[in-house]
């Protein structure tokens, strides 16, 4: 009996044959990604490309089963592929350690795949993959989990503007994101909330929580695991053990030494260690190490003040990374805002260091009577420590700092990532992927798909209903007004260093054939590049306009009679002669369909009357909120299927809908 006997018997020869030729892209190798990769390898998917930007963290090991302690700090994609390969040696595995938004992963690159599966941990990357799949005409399986809840959503992009097309990830507006991934906050935070979670869930437990058992590391060495990596982990553990010992043996006169050691470890040595990993900062603005003594003496100089216009920062900004408006600012001498209220006072850098030292002394004084100290938002000492620790980290990474009151409000609740939920969702992803691939078979027989012969792609939700733990929904039709999937997409291969914006626009509009072009405006990610009465940028190269490979130019009809034209820029083929054309237009640019009529404005609600027969006045402080009914968390996790939602007017109150969009631990605001 061969390895494939059972899979072939279940799926049938036609569908199993499709798996042997299909090229699959998996984006993300975290909690869902590890489970998904294992399932794909064992199910018979013959060629898998796995892409992930992150490196393995110690906190990942309890649920991302393809990783071991020896793998900490290494690439998730590379290690996951190496670990899963022995499950089925015949599978072709192509692991990539990189950012899916990098220019080389353009539309042309996406077109090589038959299906894409998302196992991502942030909303921005999901939106990007959704756009690329639409442009490339590739079906996408979207997914996400939040605690015990989860969702799988097939998005059928390979039949654009046809009756079998489904909605895309952005056809329904998502609630404002209030949840953030934890798996990368220890290395590359990009928001203040990342820093708060780091200070609360990592720094505080490391200094005042349970001490880690080093015996496990010794066992790992004895078992033959990577000795150099284990040595690095031991060095890290020993560094924390040293500062923990200083805190526990310090007296009133030696606490300053302990505070200095902690500060140097976290904000100087650790940051310098990360800076040594140059690839990590290729598309990000690097952090700045902090010097405690210099800050307290008023002599600290922020190197970003001199380098803020340098090439490295420009490249990072061009790559779309958040660089923080205050990244190059030393606010140690600036007047704080909100000085009237202690909790709402914005501290200077020096005051933040002083608060860090003071809270550390108070917590150290509690150690004799409290061996383990945990965070409580009503505990002044731990709140001060988390506030100071988070703001120092935020300053180092060029992120906006928060007041004590904001930190207390944002600390929120941690929803734990549950390995079982990830495993269930990964299994459902594969089932829906098989249904999608079955729909791609040419001239399938009635028995095609074997056990799945009568099955079709569905949205599947994990619910909190004991009698119906899985909810199944039909796929929804596209939103006719969606700005992402309604445009007609074309791909233009070009040399962006030499091709001008005018070349592209005139080319796709037919100006080269002496046809009368329509009056259009050109946009790129919200930027206006050209308008009917302003075409100054037409003579500029695409590179000079920061429109490289992977960029999507939106050509919008000024009369708004037809849908937009999305022009996806891709690189020239490797075989293209050096003296050949600067750009290659698609052989056929489809005619643009009429734009859908705008929806009618809703009828205003009648005035609400009270018992005193007086009309309730319109209050500017009232908030119109959207309540998402059944399965709200599931839909937020991986894309919404809710076509309508009730609207509710609430006076003198505000409700924020939590958006959960990742497969790891998340922090949810209350």
TrEMBL record:
The keyword Zinc applies. PROSITE patterns: PROKAR_LIPOPROTEIN (PS51257), UBIQUITIN_ACTIVAT_2 (PS00865). Residues 305-329 have a biased composition (Basic and acidic residues). Zn(2+) binds at residues 168, 171, 482, 485. Residues 341-408 form the Ubiquitin-activating enzyme SCCH domain. GO terms for cellular component: cytoplasm; SUMO activating enzyme complex. Residues 9-446 form the THIF-type NAD/FAD binding fold domain. ATP binds at residues 28-33, 52, 60-63, 76, 121-126. It holds the Pfam family ThiF. Pathway: Protein modification; protein sumoylation. GO terms for biological process: protein sumoylation. Residues 305-343, 588-624 are annotated as: Disordered. The active site is at 183 (glycyl thioester intermediate). InterPro entries: ThiF/MoeB/HesA, ThiF_NAD_FAD-bd, Ub-E1_IAD_1, Ub_act_enz_dom_a_sf, Uba2, UBA_E1_SCCH, Ubiquitin-activating_enz, UBQ-activ_enz_E1_Cys_AS. One of its GO terms (molecular function) is SUMO activating enzyme activity. Gene3D superfamilies: Ubiquitin activating enzymes (Uba3). Chain: B, domain 2, Ubiquitin-activating enzyme E1, inactive adenylation domain, subdomain 1, Ubiquitin-like 2 activating enzyme e1b. Chain: B, domain 3. Keywords: ATP-binding, Metal-binding, Nucleotide-binding, Ubl conjugation pathway, Zinc. Belongs to the ubiquitin-activating E1 family. Heterodimer. This is Ubiquitin-activating enzyme E1-like. It comes from Rhizoctonia solani.
